[in-house]
Amino acid sequence: MRNIAIIAKREFKGYFATPLALVFIVIFLALTGAFAFYVGGFFSRGYADLTPFFSYHPWLFLLLVPAIGMRLWAEERKSGTIELLMTLPVSTLDAVLGKFLAAWAFCGLALALTFPMWITVNMLGDPDNGIIVASYIGSFVMAGAFLSISACISALTKNQVIAFIIAATVCFLFTMSGAQLVLNFFQGWAPEVLVDALRSMSFLTHFQAVTQGVIDVKDVVFFGSLIVLWLFLNVIAVEINKGR
Amino acid sequence: MAEMIALSRLTKRFGPLTAVDGIDMKVSRGEVLGFLGPNGAGKSTTMKMVTGFLAPTSGTALVDGMDVTVDPVKAKQRIGYLPEGAPCYGDMTPRSFLNFIADVRMLSGKERDKAIDETIQRVEIDGVLEQPIETLSKGFKRRVGLAQAILHNPPVLILDEPTDGLDPNQKHQVRTLIQEMAADKAVVISTHILEEVEAVCSRAVVIARGKILADGTPEDLLKRSPLHNAVHVRVAAAAASSVAGDLKALAVVGEVTQGESRAGYCEFSVTSKTGAPIAPEVAALLKDKGHPVSDLKTEKGALDAVFREITRGPAKKPAEAQNA
Question: Interface pTM (ipTM) of the complex?
Answer without folding.
Answer: 0.88
